[in-house]
Amino acid sequence: MLKKSAYLIPLAALLLAAGCSKVEVRPYSPMYPMSFQTAGYPTRTGIEGSVFPTSETFGAWAWAEGTIGDYFMDDETVSYTETEREGSVTGAWTPSTTYYWPKGVPVDFVCYYPAGMSGITVAQRSISYEGIDVNALQQDIMYSDKAARYTDDTSLVEGDALYGLDGVPVLFRHALAKVRIYVRVGFSSLTSDNGTVTDWSIDLNGIKLDNVLTTGSCALTLKDQPAFGQIGWDRPADRDGFNVWTADGTTATLTGLSCEALPTEEPGFLALPELFVLPQSLLGREQTVTLDLTINTSRNGVPFITEHIVRTAALYIKDDFQELPAWEMNNAITYYLVLYPTGNGADGSPEITFDPAVAEWDHIEVATSIIL
């Protein structure tokens, strides 16, 4: 249930995050070529997992005991291919070079997206991103849980009933955050006790986000547990405990769309379509949203007044019902901005009322002489 607050311009946030998944063990053919499974896993939060698109590719690293060199797989590109046999089509995620399971030797796997991206370093127990300009890239960046100690006769597989794929399971996590903004009008018409109808139409001339951090670095470290199966990564945390990147101070202004006559219906007009953003703290209140608006007012169908106003609000949200202190990793954040076309008086009513009073007389007394 989405909560809406009572700001003059209320801002509400919907946070979606991936959770963990369970695994099961099943036999694997010793001579079977290595393949990957990129099914979306059901999460503990009840949000249904997403399926990795078969039109995309991802990168894979692997380590095995006794490998000559640092890696068993050295940044291989993995793609989806379909094979037709005896009238049936089967699909598999396979690396560009065919790899076979070494006999009885455990293999660890870590995958990332997009394949071939610069600025990423993958090691056995760490993943790091350096100098990533998220605003310029505007692409999802993902890393997988580590699939640890797979052998030629066992594989952790989940999702077969849903997706029908065997292979090393790859559960991707989002390294970035993403933000979108809807804008609507709280009400557009009021009728007074004497029957006067006042209507408002609000045009959104423009929307922008200022002082948004765009470039930074991130280091992930492997969790200690479990020793076998899918192992997650500890995300970086700032001094306030938020899972954000270390920014280099570079900022940008993000601009959205305009709209003539904003709607009153939820969710409103999508003024800022979804953008990938650097995970960052909002506690400093430097990040702001600015709306350029034109308010057209009419009374009983006759145009009455047109106002041009610009309003700025902090993207940090905190009230009695909600708090959004940061754009954290793996969060998809939606702001709902609700505009009210009138100000409220002391009694909370949008109507203009009067409080008459008469100032006291200034009593002036003088004395003078009159000569008769």
Secondary structure blueprint with pairings:
Elements: E1 13-16, E2 25-27, E3 36-37, E4 58-64, E5 73-85, E6 88-95, E7 107-113, E8 120-122, E9 126-133, H1 134-137, E10 142-144, E11 146-150, E12 154-156, H2 160-163, E13 168-169, E14 172-174, E15 177-185, E16 189-191, E17 197-213, E18 215-222, E19 229-231, E20 233-234, E21 246-247, E22 251-255, E23 269-277, E24 280-281, E25 288-299, E26 302-314, E27 317-318, E28 323-324, E29 326-327, E30 332-339
Parallel strand pairs: 3-13, 15-30
Antiparallel strand pairs: 1-30, 2-12, 4-5, 4-7, 5-6, 7-10, 7-11, 8-9, 9-18, 10-14, 11-19, 15-23, 16-17, 17-22, 17-25, 18-20, 18-21, 24-29, 25-26, 27-28
Keywords:
372 residues, 46% strand, mainly beta
Number of helices: 2
Major β-sheet, in short? 8 strands, antiparallel
Measure the end-to-end span: 91 Å
Provide the β-strand percentage band.
Answer: over 45%
Helix proportion: under 10%
Low-confidence stretches: 1-32, 39-49, 155-165
Shape: elongated
- Average the pLDDT over all residues and give the rounded result: 80
Beta-strand segment tally: 30
Query: In terms of structural class, how would the helical and strand content be classed?
Result: mainly beta
Q: Give the C-alpha Rg.
A: 30 Å
